[in-house]
Design brief:
alpha/beta; 5 helices; 6 strands; about 15% strand; elongated
Length: about 160
Amino acid sequence: ILRQGFTSVCMINAPLRMQNAQDRESGFKQAVADAINKPDQVQTIYTALDAESNVEAFSNLIRSQPNVQSIFCYNDYLAYDCIRYMQSNGLGHVQVVGYGHEPVSKIHMPNIPTVDQSPYQMGQISARLILDWIQKGKVPPENSYTSVKLMHAKY
């Protein structure tokens, strides 16, 4: 998204008591800092992840940041709620991106751009780490990373 020239980006995130919400926000802010060098201008709004809270967070974000170009959502279901709200209220100027490559990202037309978190690769790495621990006594690292990719909308 940042490589496409978007400079006004925001995030709607899950509550920070969730570790993966903390990690996604940290990674998002780092990517923005690396791309446009303005991490302090990135606004993040939080949602309880139910449809009503998602719509409220999105509408609050649009009101507070009327020139936002792109919104990164904690997951695809949140992105779906935001897009439905935009469509029902005649708002079409914001690029919404989800996370997880969940089925909802493919059934919405047009498809929701989403980050594929490579669950197959995560399973392979996890199995390898566990087997190495059991068979060789090799303690797994605290963190292990996989590659991710942006799945673009298909029209």
